[in-house]
Amino acid sequence: MRDDGKASKESDVYSFGIVALEIACGRRPVEPKEEPGRARLLPWAWEMHGRNAIQEAADDRLNKAFDEAELGRLVAVGLWCAHPDWTLRPSIRQAVAVLKFESPPPVLPPKMPVPVYFVPPIGYHGLSGAASSIADAGDSAFGTSSSSDRLLES
C-alpha cells in the first residue's frame, strides 16, 4: 500500500502471491481454528517448501490428482510474490512466465525470510525512518535491542 492508501504494484504482486497459495493449498490466508504452526498460510507454505513437502501442501480436495511440476511452480510463484522483502518480489510478467513454463522457477531460501529493522545511528540525517533488511528466519538477527541499548547509553 502506498501512503495514500491506494494499491501499489508491490501490493498487487503480494496479493497475487497470496491468491496463488490459496489456490494451491485450498486454504485461507489465516485459519484461526488451525493449530498455531498452520494458522497462517504464508509461513506454513514456506515451511512446506523448505521441507520439500509441496505435495503435502496441496489442496486435499484435489485428491492428489495434480501435476506436481505445476503445483510446485504455483507455490514457488506464490512465495516469491509474497516475499517479505518487496524488492525481491517479481513483476507480474515474471511470475506469469514461470507459471507458463517460459522461465525457471525462482530459487527461494528454505526458511521464510523475516524483516529486521535497524535503528539508524544518532546524528544520521539521511533517510527518515529506520533502515530495514531481511534475514533468514533461522538467524538470530533481531539484534536491534543491543543497538538501541548502545544508543541509549550515548
Automatic annotation (TrEMBL):
Q: Which GO terms describe its molecular function?
A: ATP binding
Keywords noted in UniProt: ATP-binding, Nucleotide-binding
Q: Amino-acid biosynthesis as a keyword?
A: no
Transmembrane feature ranges: none
**Which InterPro entries does the record match to this protein?**
Kinase-like_dom_sf, L-type_Lectin-RKs
* PANTHER family, per database record: PTHR27007
- Stated name of the protein: L-type lectin-domain containing receptor kinase IX.1-like
Identify the taxonomic lineage of the organism of origin: Eukaryota, Viridiplantae, Streptophyta, Embryophyta, Tracheophyta
